[in-house]
Specification:
Distance between the termini: 70 Å
Oligomer: single chain
Number of strands: 0
Strand content: under 5%
Structural class: mainly alpha
Order of helices and strands: HHHHHHHHHHHHHHHHHHH
Radius of gyration: 45 Å
Low-confidence stretches: 1-58, 463-467
Shape: elongated
Largest sheet: none
Helix content: over 70%
Length: 629
């Protein structure tokens, strides 16, 4: 919120002046007198509203404390606002500026004379700020002239419209036919008259004289009787009661600014209504006035509360700035450490956004201080990520060396010894950190191709015999049937133990006919998952239990089967590791450069957690294989 912004929600459009006609004893002029009394009531209300308004308008800044440069900057901002609301403030800024200029000149002259200079030789240096001020004042005068010209133009247009209405009223008054048939037409002209804005000041009195004269002449012609007048009083009373109820209902409006603005509209409607009977006039007016007073007092209290809340917000923002400035991130040297620190800073930024405005005079300064602290953190983080590129380059050289070693071993026929060496190389590969993503896939492909080639050759030379597939299929179907019939009779541990025995038995059975392989495995998996659901076993544990049982099958089919499965898992593990590093790197740069990337960062963090859980599961599977090799 701009510290120079004024409260413009409190504008009240003043009434056009009306001429009071002296009351006489005849009914027509008595009705006119009643209208004038209502105008007096409304004027009194508007005057009171203006007085109350002055109490809640925000005080102007103390420009006597501003420097000349600050005064010029303040004027620059001020003339961008509604030109009709800033006249007083512009004048204060101008006077403050020239007071400072005069004081500075007198001080310079005094110093000049003290230094031995002659008064006739003293000259005031050219002040560029004064030129800027004059330029801004000229701009303000130009805008003011345009605004004033438009207002005057609108008033001239309104004058033409009202003159036209007066001519139409005059035509109705001078008609020779039954004037009473034109009551609705005359009232429509009255309504249209009230809907038109102000006219030039020099025409106001004369226009209202003509308007009231036409009204009196018209109602004289149709000889308004007491019954019709009482009817009008009744309709006006009903309308004013509705306005009183609407004003009283505003007390339940939670937004006091909205309530105050709606109250001003109700006053405008009240002003447009005619009088009520004399005996009810004061009563209905006092009711409306009391309802208005309630809203005006709440409006004043609201701004008192706002000022108090702004002071509390200032204290909260100062405390948050101090926390950010005191945050020590000089020793952070890992991605995880920087991620944890980033979450802390982002939480502080979320907290900052929940705090409302501080007082205008300090709000921008506090924001600049807060922004400076945050920028210092993210700048340091960017430096760290830039330095991490060197680490990626070192990891690249290490992995190239492992590729060369694997390629040197791939043609070996020392199956056992070379298998152990390649497995160790794969373990070493896992200990090396990530490399650049654009090189990661090709480097891994080079490494695993060499490993795959060796184990394929080993597999060709060590393949075993196959079991009878048809018998295996029957045995596996029998196990599926047993799993489906397994019941949990209050002892879940026993049921889980039995289920695992069935799974172990399944894995001990050899291959089935190829055409039945997928179908029978699907039936088996469905049956197992159903039992896991009954036993309330989580998905990760299911996968580990299933994999543990599958290991027995792999181990029974030769060491090469375990090697192949391990290679597949290592490849998956390496790919996940690379993905995690990429996401972490992206979060770092996004946090340091983006001002509104909070949602995207949170989505990336959720993705990283999922990938980490998956990589942990794969790592457990790899460890299981290595224990069985």
């Amino acid at each position: 919120m701009n510290p120079l912004e004024l409260n413009k929600d409190l504008e009240i459009v003043p009434n056009e002046p009306t001429e009071v006609v002296s009351p006489e004893i005849n009914e027509t002029e008595e009705l006119t007198a009643e209208i004038d009394v209502v105008d007096s009531e409304e004027t009194a209300l508007e005057t009171k509203t203006d007085e109350q308004l002055q109490k809640v308008v925000t005080k102007l800044p103390d420009y006597s404390l501003y420097t000349k440069a600050e005064l010029v900057d303040a004027l620059k901002l001020l003339i961008e606002k509604d030109i009709d609301t800033i006249k007083e403030e512009v004048e204060i800024i101008k006077q403050s500026f020239y007071k400072r200029t005069k004081a500075e000149a007198e001080e310079s002259k005094h110093l000049f004379l003290e230094a031995g200079g002659e008064e006739s030789e003293f000259k005031v240096d050219k002040d560029e700020l004064e030129d800027t001020l004059k330029s801004l004042l000229n701009e303000y005068r130009s805008k003011k002239a345009v605004f004033t010209a438009q207002i005057e133009k609108d008033k001239e247009n309104n004058l033409v419209l009202k003159q036209h209405i007066l001519e139409q009223m005059k035509v109705l008054v001078e008609r020779n036919d039954d004037v009473s048939t034109h009551i609705n037409e005359f009232r429509a002209l009255q309504q249209k008259w009230r809907s038109i804005g102000q006219v030039p000041a020099q025409h106001v009195t004369e226009m209202w004289k003509q308007y009231n004269s036409n009204q009196e002449a018209f109602w004289d012609l149709i000889k308004i009787n007491n019954e019709l007048r009482e009817y009008d009083f009744k309709k006006n009373l009903e309308a004013k009661i509705l306005l009183c109820e609407a004003a009283e209902k505003l007390d339940s409006e939670t937004n006091i600014i909205v309530a105050f603005q709606q109250l001003q509209k109700l006053h405008e409607e009240w002003h447009e209504l005619g009088p009520v009977s004399r005996e009810l006039r004061e009563q209905i007016w006092n009711r409306f006035k009391e309802a208005s007073s309630v809203i005006n007092k709440k409006h004043q209290a609201y701004f008192d509360t706002v000022r108090k809340l702004e002071d509390e917000n200032m204290e909260a923002k100062i405390a948050l700035c101090e926390k950010i400035e005191a945050f020590d991130y000089s020793n952070l040297n890992t991605y995880k450490a920087w991620d944890d620190a980033t979450r802390i800073v982002l939480a502080w930024q979320d907290e900052w956004r929940t705090i409302g405005f501080a007082p205008r005079k300090v709000n921008q300064k506090l924001f600049d201080r807060y922004r400076k602290g945050c920028d210092a953190f993210f700048d340091a983080k960017a430096v760290f990520y830039k330095a991490s590129k060197n680490i990626l380059a070192q990891n690249l050289e290490k992995k190239k060396a492992l590729c060369e070693q694997a390629e040197a071993l791939k043609d070996s026929v020392e199956w056992k010894e070379t298998s152990e060496k390649l497995i160790q190389l794969q373990k070493d590969w896992r200990t090396i950190g990530p490399v650049s993503k654009k090189l990661s896939d090709d480097l891994w492909k080079r490494f695993i191709t060499a490993c795959d080639y060796f184990f394929e050759q080993k597999n060709k030379n060590t393949s075993g015999q196959r079991s009878v597939e048809t018998d295996n299929l029957a045995k596996k179907k029998e196990i599926i049937e047993k799993i489906n019939l397994l019941e949990n009779k209050g002892n879940s541990m026993e049921a889980l133990s039995t289920l695992r025995e069935f799974m172990a038995e399944w894995n001990a059975i050899g291959h089935v006919p190829f055409k039945d392989k997928d179908k029978v495995y699907k039936e088996y998996r469905t049956a197992v998952d159903k039992q896991f659901d009954i036993l309330n076993i989580d998905a990760s544990q299911r996968r580990l239990d299933s994999f543990k049982n599958n290991l027995r099958d792999m181990a029974g089919k030769g060491e090469n089967k375990l090697y192949r499965e391990r290679e597949k898992l290592v490849r998956a593990y390496e790919h996940l590791k690379s993905e995690i590093a990429t996401y972490e790197n992206n979060i770092g740069f996004l946090s340091s450069s983006s001002k509104k990337g909070g949602g995207l960062i949170k989505e990336m963090e959720r993705k990283i957690e999922t990938l980490k859980e998956e990589s942990k599961l794969i790592e457990q599977k790899i460890n299981m294989i290595e224990e069985n090799m």
